[in-house]
């Protein structure tokens, strides 16, 4: 029997398509169930008022605001540290045993369970630095958790920029930093934004790190400073589902739907920005 490469290619494509469907279908099913059971709870009152009656009634505005604060604080700390670290490892650091160990450690840190970061944040930021359970402690803990993701994706983006771009810039008399600033970073920006998207998704949806460092069961007022505790959607959803009896099903699913929409909205904005920069690529 004669070997037919086109037939093998068709089989491979079908297997890949089947694998993709197996991944996508459960996600679509989960989203459909959340929308179906939670859409009835969505209203202006639900989105803009404080919870009441032991979280069985009222809204989730403090949890929404707390999640926004935490994600914003996480990006403020993690983004500069992650991108600058990736630039140093890619453009300045020599390829030796030490840098290889650092790169391996960064990859391993990206896979550490989030509860470990929560305990680390509790010991360092809450107790040692005496920030207490606060927005600052929670943001720093989440930042440390997502920094390995940003470093890894940013490093891959920088590595993908052709070496000839650097050589041409340096040959024209530009300094090392000028070459990075004007010839490398603009082309690596779409990949860096991919890391930011992943970081936002993980920071917004984590429960364990904020459980130890910032999240509160219920707070009757909105936070006034970075040293205040906040409610957050992931923890609020966990509390309503496990600790508060007789909560209406549509309220639980409505909270999950709000969290899902918030994460997708943040990602959508980042994807739009990434697409605009990607269109500027000339290679």
Architecture overview:
- This protein has eleven helices and two strands; from the N terminus they run ααββααααααααα.
- With 283 residues, the protein is mainly alpha-helical.
- It has a single domain (69-278), classed as Orthogonal Bundle (MetI-like fold).
- It has a two-stranded antiparallel ribbon with strand order 1-2.
- A hairpin with a 4-residue loop joins strand 1 and strand 2.
- Helix 5 (114-128) crosses helix 6 and helix 10 (233-242) runs antiparallel to helix 11.
- It is globular and about 70 Å long.
- The model has no long low-confidence stretch (mean pLDDT 88).
Provide key terms for this protein.
2 strands; MetI-like fold; mainly alpha; globular; two-stranded antiparallel sheet
